[in-house]
């Protein structure tokens, strides 16, 4: 297999979570875990990776929460952004930079793009109808209005989007709109705002999209449908006092709206990252080098913003910036058959989980259940089952019985192999085949399928070990038992490497059990296994269990975890 890793930059932008509440399992499964696995894999392949995201600081969910609690939006941001950072660290989400959209750098980049597009005629002024609440005496930004979706009749649709059918909306399209602050019925008044001329990019976007056959079917279908219905110019400012200021006199009571400025955060974050390094121009390698591939990990509700609106902004701005190479959007993960929702307090919160349990079992469960090709559901009972049956019994037990038996019977050293029999060679060949398959699926960003393939090797190794039975073999032929264990240890080392992007914490433990030093994430991901053999005589460390079995009656972590705000 040809090494495709040389001199290739990989930019990974991950959706910006609203800083209006703790992170829940739906967030992690939606985009953050898949992005981390992909980033870790590419780093091990020797590629230069830049993975960025940050707290979406100016979205109306933040101001809604601030209004509800009688505090400032900045107070809300300052409460939840540090929580996000702590969660990423504990869960092993390896951002190169996790920032916020509430920085001077981000403001400067957004304002520069705004003025550039205005000068080119891609931004213009026009009047629009906006919801105005007579009781609150204020204009209502999109998420301050709820009503019935005109397309699917969801009664909890918001003024910017319907979570049920995924359609983007304007507040005036809602049936029976209500103010979320006072439940009053708003009226619609004209207000002057700036619009992005999206319609100018209809043909260019369609042509560009036809050259993206590697995109997931759901992303292509959703994007094509959005385009084929005809692109409409969209307002990019609102009557607000929180957000990025419009860089022009006379607009002090308005702000650049979040859906326009948040996607620019991918560029501003790269610039901020470079500014913190020894080379302030390093961001150019990821944004102007045409050999760079840019991936945007998002949930399906964000598809049009990343497959249409952000590319349109890049096209309008020019400056030789790279367009997205791939937009691997996941479908939705539900909780007990109900959609995760921070605003409606229906979630299983990641900080609560991490207070009681290790990160890798959660990473495993959410990957095995990742909604890559369709919606999936999370249940606590299924988490317990997968932990006990698959991590503990299949993989953890495999590691423990090979290493414990070897450590006890071969003086803590890897045995020297003798002649390899057909079954030995067969298992080693299977590991080569699995590596080739996983290389292919990970390059195609098929995260769940890749983990399934790796675990098939663990299952096959268990069958090999049961058939060879070295605990019996050692009584009559210690050398033959040693060969079996040498094969098993080398398979464990291969599993360790392939599982590092998925299960970094327990892979590090196994790395050390096998007698290696340093960070397992620094291990190179090979094109084949010829350079990864663990030699006979290598000292082993005394192993301990990788995973703990959980009681089927164990409670959901945290106090009232499903309703914590």
Short description:
The chain has helices at 25-44, 60-69, 73-91, 104-120, 202-209, 217-228, 258-261, 265-275, 284-287, 303-317, 350-356, 359-368, 380-409, 422-443, 447-468, 470-476, 478-499, 504-513, and strands at 9-14, 48-55, 97-100, 123-133, 138-139, 145-148, 157-158, 175-179, 187-196, 234-235, 237-238, 244-245, 255-256, 293-299, 329-330, 333-335, 338-339, 376-378. The chain is an alpha/beta fold and 565 residues long.
Write up this protein.
This protein is 44% helix and 14% strand. The protein has helices at residues 25-44, 60-69, 73-91, 104-120, 202-209, 217-228, 258-261, 265-275, 284-287, 303-317, 350-356, 359-368, 380-409, 422-443, 447-468, 470-476, 478-499, 504-513, and strands at residues 9-14, 48-55, 97-100, 123-133, 138-139, 145-148, 157-158, 175-179, 187-196, 234-235, 237-238, 244-245, 255-256, 293-299, 329-330, 333-335, 338-339, 376-378. A hairpin with a 4-residue loop joins strand 4 (123-133) and strand 5. The longest helix has 30 residues, at 380-409. The protein is elongated and about 90 Å long. The two termini are 50 Å apart.
CATH architecture of the largest domain: 3-Layer(aba) Sandwich
Give the proportion of residues in helices. 40-55%
Estimated share of beta-strand residues: 5-15%
- How would a textbook summarize the main sheet? 5 strands, parallel
Compute the gyration radius: what is it? 26 Å
CATH hierarchy, class of the largest domain:
Alpha Beta
User: How many DSSP E strands?
Assistant: 18
What's the oligomerization state? single chain
Structural class: alpha/beta
The global form is elongated
Uncertain residue ranges: 1-6, 559-565
Number of helices: 18
Whole-number average pLDDT?
92
CATH superfamily of the largest domain: HUPs
- Write the CATH fold name of the largest domain: Rossmann fold
Sequence of strands across the biggest β-sheet:
3-2-1-14-15
């Amino acid at each position: 297999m040809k090494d495709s890793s040389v001199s290739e930059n990989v930019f990974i932008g991950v959706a910006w979570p609203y800083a209006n509440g703790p992170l829940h399992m739906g967030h992690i499964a939606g985009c953050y875990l898949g992005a981390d696995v992909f980033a870790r894999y590419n780093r091990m392949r020797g590629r230069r990776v830049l993975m960025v995201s940050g707290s979406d600081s100016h979205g109306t969910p933040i101001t809604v929460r601030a209004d509800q609690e009688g505090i400032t939006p900045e107070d809300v941001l300052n409460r939840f952004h540090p929580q996000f950072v702590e969660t990423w660290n504990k869960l092993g989400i390896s951002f190169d930079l996790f920032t916020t959209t509430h920085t001077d750098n981000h403001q400067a980049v957004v304002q520069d793009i705004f003025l550039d597009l205005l000068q080119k005629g891609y931004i213009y002024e026009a009047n629009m109808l906006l919801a105005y609440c007579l009781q609150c005496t204020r204009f209502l930004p999109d998420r301050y209005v709820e009503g019935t979706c005109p397309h699917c009749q969801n009664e909890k649709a918001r003024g910017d989007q319907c979570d049920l059918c995924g359609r983007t909306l304007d507040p005036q399209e809602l049936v029976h709109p209500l103010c979320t602050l006072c439940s009053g019925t708003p009226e619609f008044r004209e207000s002057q705002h700036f619009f992005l001329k999206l319609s100018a990019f209809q043909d260019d976007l369609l042509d560009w999209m036809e050259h993206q056959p590697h995109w997931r079917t759901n992303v292509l279908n959703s994007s094509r449908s959005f385009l084929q219905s005809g692109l409409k110019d969209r307002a990019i400012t609102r009557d607000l006092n929180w957000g990025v200021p419009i860089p022009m006199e006379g607009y002090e009571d308005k702000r650049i709206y979040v859906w326009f400025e948040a996607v620019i955060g991918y560029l501003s974050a790269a610039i901020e990252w470079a500014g913190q390094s020894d080379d302030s121009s390093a961001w150019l390698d990821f944004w102007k080098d045409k050999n760079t591939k840019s991936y945007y990990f998002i949930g399906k509700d964000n598809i049009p913003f990343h497959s249409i609106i952000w590319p349109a902004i890049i096209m309008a701005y020019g400056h030789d910036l790279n367009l997205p190479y791939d937009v691997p959007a996941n479908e939705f993960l539900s909780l007990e058959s109900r959609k995760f929702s921070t605003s409606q307090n229906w979630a299983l919160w990641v900080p609560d989980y991490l207070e009681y349990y290790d990160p890798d079992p959660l990473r495993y469960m959410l990957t095995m259940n990742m909604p890559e090709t369709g919606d999936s559901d999370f249940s606590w009972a299924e988490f317990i089952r997968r932990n006990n049956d698959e991590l503990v019994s299949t993989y953890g037990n495999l590691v423990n019985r090979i290493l414990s038996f070897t450590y006890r019977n071969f003086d803590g050293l890897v045995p020297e192999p003798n002649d390899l029999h057909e079954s030995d060679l067969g298992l080693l060949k299977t590991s080569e085949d699995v590596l080739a398959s996983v290389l292919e699926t990970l390059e195609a960003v098929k995260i769940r399928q890749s983990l399934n393939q790796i675990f098939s090797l663990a299952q096959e190794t268990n069958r090999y070990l049961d058939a060879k039975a070295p605990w019996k073999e050692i009584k009559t032929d210690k050398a033959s038992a040693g060969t079996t264990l040498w094969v098993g240890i080398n398979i464990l080392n291969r599993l360790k490497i392939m599982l590092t992007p998925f299960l970094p914490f327990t892979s590090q433990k196994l790395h050390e059990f096998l007698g290696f030093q340093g960070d397992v994430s620094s291990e190179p991901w090979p094109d084949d296994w010829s350079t990864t053999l663990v030699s006979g005589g290598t000292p082993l460390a005394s192993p301990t269990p990788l995973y703990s079995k959980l009681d089927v009656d164990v409670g959901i972590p945290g106090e009232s975890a499903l309703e914590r705000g």
